[in-house]
């Protein structure tokens, strides 16, 4: 028997039954032929069995076509039998494993960098984590933070208090573990090691917020990001123009989308550092940001307003809207920690008062001491 149009029944997510109509809207007629029933009955049964077996074989070979298809940006899929989340695929490296575990649904992670001095109890990492817990809409983001550790002691401390820690394999970790005052050789090594890791993250297809660990997270920053920008960066001093490359940038807080333009930019940025030895990433960025190569990339840059992304260089003028506060323009680890704690106490008093403040005053000294 065959369908009235002479074509086989289609297979897909919904399986059709056997079409036995003859085109005249009449039911099939089965004639008796002998003591044990008609031959047409045997034909119908065999046909039904054949179609059923074919459907089962198709269903199995398609590996359950009824299973939902998730977004390609989702790092996990559902196990169809237990409904437990399982990795979409096995990571090819330890870095990728950490990224997969920490990523948001749209493949975005938050990254900070630590050494032994910054990871010590009551140092910057503890204040950093406390700010997420005290902020508005920020505590849920803490589970997406990856702490990149530059030495073994930083890593050991990290795994005691935080779920996502990644140790960079280095042969010179002893040079990176101390306070590393601004612009010392150890500081510059730390900076460029961090930059190379961010390049790898983009290459693996992950968007990231990079945040220095001496930044307080007071409000969820995502609503303040420019939706159409590829690369966004904070400023020590903001001139009021979000597209103006003359802004004095601070690379301690950046939001970068993973695409070909940003990946090529980071490679160029790191490669350019060899032409300017002794300079840190911000200096090199200011040199290359208007180069022809960067212009031709078509990468859309935006610069953050210090009202929302403030720092000790230019503290936010409005605590009612501030998202982050950075201990920039503050030299020395002890100075940073003490003044971050003071600023966090200002924030806690503001939150507990539950009122809009007409005048914002931060309990931090000018220039934060040297």
From TrEMBL:
UniProt cross-references to Pfam families, sorted A to Z: Nucleotid_trans (PF03407)
Catalytic EC class: transferase
GO annotation (BP), single: cell wall organization
A GO cellular component entry from the record: Golgi membrane
InterPro entries, sorted: At1g28695/At4g15970-like, Nucl-diP-sugar_transferase, Nucleotide-diphossugar_trans
Keywords, comma-separated and alphabetical: Cell wall biogenesis/degradation, Glycosyltransferase, Golgi apparatus, Signal-anchor, Transferase, Transmembrane
KW Glycosyltransferase (keyword) present: yes
Principal location class: Golgi
E.C. designation(s): 2.4.2.-
Ranges of residues in domain Nucleotide-diphospho-sugar transferase: 141-340
Subcellular location: Golgi apparatus membrane
Membrane topology: Single-pass type II membrane protein
GO molecular function: glycosyltransferase activity
Record family assignment: Belongs to the glycosyltransferase 77 family.
Protein name (record): Glycosyltransferase
Organism of provenance: Arabis alpina (Alpine rock-cress)
């Amino acid at each position: 028997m065959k369908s009235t149009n002479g074509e086989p029944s289609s297979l897909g997510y919904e399986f059709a039954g056997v079409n036995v109509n003859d085109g005249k809207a009449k039911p099939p007629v089965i004639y008796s032929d002998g003591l044990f029933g008609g031959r047409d009955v045997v034909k119908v049964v065999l046909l039904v069995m054949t179609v059923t077996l074919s459907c089962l074989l198709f269903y199995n070979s398609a590996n359950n076509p009824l299973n939902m298809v998730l977004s390609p940006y989702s790092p996990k899929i559902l196990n169809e039998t237990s409904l437990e989340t399982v990795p979409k695929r096995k990571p090819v490296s330890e870095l990728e494993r950490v990224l997969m575990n920490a990523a948001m649904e749209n493949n975005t992670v938050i990254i900070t960098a630590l050494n032994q001095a910054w990871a010590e109890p009551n140092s910057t990492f503890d204040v950093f984590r406390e700010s997420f817990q005290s902020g508005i809409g920020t505590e849920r983001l803490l589970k997406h933070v990856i702490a990149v550790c530059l030495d073994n002691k930083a890593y050991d401390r990290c795994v005691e208090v935080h779920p996502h820690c990644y140790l960079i394999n280095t042969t010179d970790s002893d040079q990176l573990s101390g306070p590393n005052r601004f612009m010392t050789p150890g500081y510059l090594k730390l900076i460029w090691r961090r930059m190379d890791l961010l390049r790898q993250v983009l290459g693996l297809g992950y968007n990231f917020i990079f945040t220095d660990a001496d930044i307080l997270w007071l409000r969820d920053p995502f609503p303040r990001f420019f939706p159409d920008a590829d690369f966004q960066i904070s400023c020590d001093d903001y001139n009021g123009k979000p597209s103006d490359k003359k802004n004095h940038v601070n690379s301690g807080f950046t939001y970068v989308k993973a695409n070909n333009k940003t990946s090529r930019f980071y490679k160029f940025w790191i490669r350019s550092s060899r032409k300017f030895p002794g300079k840190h990433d911000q200096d090199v960025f200011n040199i290359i940001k208007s180069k022809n190569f960067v212009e031709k990339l078509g990468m859309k840059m935006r610069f953050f307003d210090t009202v929302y992304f403030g720092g000790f260089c230019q503290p936010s003028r409005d605590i009612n809207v501030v998202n982050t506060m950075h201990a920039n323009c503050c030299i020395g680890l002890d100075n940073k920690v003490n003044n971050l704690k003071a600023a966090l106490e200002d924030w806690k008093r503001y939150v507990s008062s539950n009122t809009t403040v007409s005048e914002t005053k931060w309990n931090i000294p000018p220039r934060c001491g040297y």
